[in-house]
Amino acid sequence: MCYDISLQPVKEIINEYFSEILIIKQLEFDFSFPQHFKAHSHDFLPIIIREDEALHLRNFEWGLIAHYMNSPEKVQKQRSWMCNARGEKVLDKNAYWYKIRQQRCLIPVVGIYEHRLVKGFKNKIPYHVRWRHRKMFCLPGFYNYSPIPDPETGELKGTFTIITTHANQLMSYIHNDGENKHRMPLFLPKELELEWLKKELKDHQLQEILNFQASSDDLECWTVSSIRSRTERSDGKQKHEPLIWPGLPKLGKDDQPGNLNLF
């Protein structure tokens, strides 16, 4: 799945990436330094949506609030399941995602984090993964406005989810444990990212995008320090910067000792 991302693009990079973007509201977001965002903290992130025939950059919360979550109790109980959407379910007419398949968005990132289980290591090993040779890319998702007005402003909060798919070999080696193992975000080349935001795509066009599988060679990764700790790294580096784990076996060799291999 995808529950941790890295974001550091400045507004200029986003504007360069999406020349059509119209920023309506002043975003309360610091673009100037690398940051780690967690799905289940329901962090605000800048996302790109198409409304009123234009692209907009908006601050939405990670963790989609569906129309049927019409009480605070339902939101609290059910929202944690809505941080990711399985790509295989999008065109399933019985799935919620089918109902909102025209409410598509892109989430700008510089990378994602995933954890690997290795025999003999007390904790899972965190990795930073990104598209090779791209300073920024976007993950496709869906957005929705909460049916419950904000008690202070009366506004309907914007929320989103990130689409996932079956892992390629690299991501299978990293995301090798847990109930949702062997999953990864739907990594897309830029031309398909832009296609994702086109108005009223037909279902067969959506399916073509959802079927895309980034190869292991399209991605690059490295090990990092613990990403969910509030403690700053002892070496003073940012969370997304490389850290060598001594004795870490090669990817795909989780039960064998060896030297670090960044694939």
What does this structure look like?
It is a single chain. Strands 3-1-8-9-13 form a 5-stranded antiparallel β-sheet. Strands 4-5-11-10-7 form a 5-stranded mixed beta barrel. The protein is of the alpha+beta class. The chain is 15% helix and 31% strand. Strand 4 (44-51) and strand 5 (54-62) form a beta hairpin. The chain starts with a strand and ends in a 40-residue tail after the last strand.
What keywords describe this structure?
five-stranded antiparallel sheet; alpha+beta; single chain; five-stranded mixed beta barrel; 15% helix; 263 residues
List the helices and strands and how they pair.
Elements: E1 4-7, H1 11-17, E2 21-22, E3 35-38, E4 44-51, E5 54-62, H2 72-78, E6 84-86, H3 96-99, E7 104-109, E8 111-116, E9 125-131, E10 137-149, E11 156-166, H4 169-174, E12 183-185, H5 190-196, H6 203-210, E13 219-223
Parallel strand pairs: 2-5, 5-11, 6-11
Antiparallel strand pairs: 1-3, 1-8, 4-5, 4-7, 7-10, 8-9, 9-13, 10-11, 11-12
